[in-house]
Amino acid sequence: MSSKRKTVVVGLSGGVDSAVAALLLKQQGYDVVGMFMKNWEDDDDEEYCSSRQDLVDVMSIADVLGIDVEVVNFAAEYRERVFAEFLREYQAGRTPNPDVLCNSEIKFKAFLEHALALGADHIATGHYAGVREFDGRYQLLKAEDGTKDQSYFLYRLNQAQLSKTLFPLANLYKRDVRRMAEAAGLHVAAKKDSTGICFIGERPFKDFLARYLPPQKGEIRRLDDGRLLGEHDGLMFHTIGQRKGLHIGGLKEKGQPGGGEHAAWFVAGKDVARNILYVVQGHDHPALFAAALEAEQLSWVAGEAPRTHWVYTAKPRYRSEDAPCEIERLGAEDCEIRFAQPQWALTPGQSVVVYESRVCLGGGVIR
Question: Which of 98, 162, 256, 260 is the most exposed place for a label (fewest CB within 10 A)?
Fold first, then answer.
């Protein structure tokens, strides 16, 4: 650090991770300012959306740390840049990942721009990820705590954004973060992690989505032979690989690929034009596996694409294992990724994120 104290604006959510991020930065000598973002207003009530309690927690954190807090409202930006796209994707029969868009459009765009306008040198968040400068460029890294690593959700960050970003939790484990919070007297040390849709919270998903996209009932058919099995409440409520909520009984027939007479049913495909949901029996049905995928809306952290026909790993969904792969075809707007082993339930709308060891190279949206 230079002799001049640098100012860091920390995005405080009211949770333990961002609280400890602010604590660490203050201990390191930064001039720390907290910022609480309010991004959802449609039904901000106590039952589902906890922003009121989160703000109370933020103020308590700030009081303990001795820092100022600014409250900003990005509800308009969130609705226009994130939620509208979220609804469009579901309407198209895909399964979007709002956290990816929320990070690139709100936390590291609207929030970053606002912080820089205030004169900040950097922003910081409680994400479990890392950033470093290497060979003249900034790299996005996996976190030390592999069980909490969030680089998957950050793959759309660019060089300009990373150059102004600090991730204080990069080398910490969650258990250590909670211990540090407790030692510092932060009452959120044991607070439950937030879940659900980014900035909207956890709520009955079907009811919530149906308020914005009127559901349309349609047929459920078996993919193998087209046999009619039942009725779905709306294609938007179902995703590839889904098992629960289909309300289909077992068929007393043997010899079906991947399953026996009472094997569970899984969503294997959608025909959006005809409003048909296709299902197969058995977790290991061949229709649920694919050795390759096409991705669009590409975003590469370095500002340029990686090499083709080079062994990388990729995560086709957040909780999937890193799978060895090659980028076989790479264009300006889309690419083809082929895996060493077939992957289960590749889902249109989800992101596929490519890594070289611990370095997140970027990725795209599965088409």
Answer: 260
Are 103 and 91 a contacting pair, CB within 8 Å? Answer: no
- Assess if residue 81 is contained within a domain: yes
Rounded distance, CA 281 to CA 196, Å? 29
Other beta carbons within 10 Å of 353 = 28
Indicate if 262 and 162 belong to the same structural domain. Answer: no
Q: Is the predicted pLDDT of residue 198 greater than 70, yes or no?
A: no
The whole-chain average pLDDT of the chain stands at 92
Is pLDDT above 80 for 262?
no
CA distance 8 to 61: 16
Instruction: Say whether both 84 and 159 belong to one domain.
Output: yes
Query: Degrees (nearest 5) of the Cα angle 213, 219, 224?
Result: 130
What is the domain range of residue 161? 7-205
Q: Which pair of structure tokens corresponds to residue 238?
A: 């179902």
**Tally of domains within the chain:** 3
Instruction: Answer yes or no: is 210 within a domain.
Output: no
Out of 205, 226, 242, a domain closes at: 205
**Domain with 115 in it: what CATH number?**
3.40.50.620
Q: CA dihedral in degrees (100, 104, 106, 109; nearest 10)?
A: 170
DSSP code of residue 158:
-
First vs last Cα of the chain: how many Å apart?
44
Q: Cβ–Cβ contacts within 10 Å for residue 28, how many?
A: 13
Residues involved in catalysis: 102, 198
Q: Is the domain of 223 the same as that of 80?
A: no
Residue 194 pLDDT class (50, 70, 90 cuts): confident
Q: What is the CATH number of the domain that holds 236?
A: 2.30.30.280
Helix residue ranges per DSSP H, 128-185 = 159-163, 174-183
Determine the Cα–Cα distance for residues 367 and 363; give it in Å rounded to an integer: 12
